Amino acid sequence: MFARNLLATMVFAIGLSGPEFAVQAQNTEASGTFRDWSYFVIAEPRECLVASAPRSWTVTQNGETVTAQRGDIRFYISILPGENTTGVPSFGAGYPLAQSEQVEMKIDGTTFYLLPNANTDTGFAWAQAEDDSRIIAAMQGGAEATIIGQSARGKVTTDNFSLFGFTAAYKKAQELCQ
Fold first, then answer.
1. Do 90 and 7 touch, CB atoms closer than 8 A?
2. What is the CATH number for 37?
3. Of the residues 1, 16, 45, 178, which has the maximum number of CB atoms within 10 A of its CB?
4. Considering only CA atoms, which of 94, 95, 91 is closest in space to residue 76?
5. Number of domains in the chain
6. What pLDDT was estimated at residue 73?
């Protein structure tokens, strides 16, 4: 759970913007991009992050396509040295999520569920710990992830993430965060 709570701090510690995620934090010691995914290594305390923005997204309400303003939309895998995990998947929706609704993640016919946690950040949803390694394995073998979430205002978003470059960025982050 520590890793899930720390992610919100990590996201604010580095400025992520644009497709290459221009790194603004002074304590970032390494970063790079493989196709559609970027990795970052934070020096103190040592933490790693793999992140990507969606290639496309849509918003609907009552079955009709609508417009919406959203902040940064990202999917993350956080890796913390010393934690006995493969990484912690999370989704930054760019808006306050409906806390009573699960966020659905589909990769090549397999569906996973992410859970919002208002105690940490209303705009994020995390995988259940027992699904972490399964999600990462599916991402390594897949081509696209689709994430469907619902805002606190009832709008439904569908975000499509390319998985090209994920495996290389994830392996590099793991290597640097041993």
1. yes
2. 2.60.40.1880
3. 16
4. 91
5. 1
6. 97
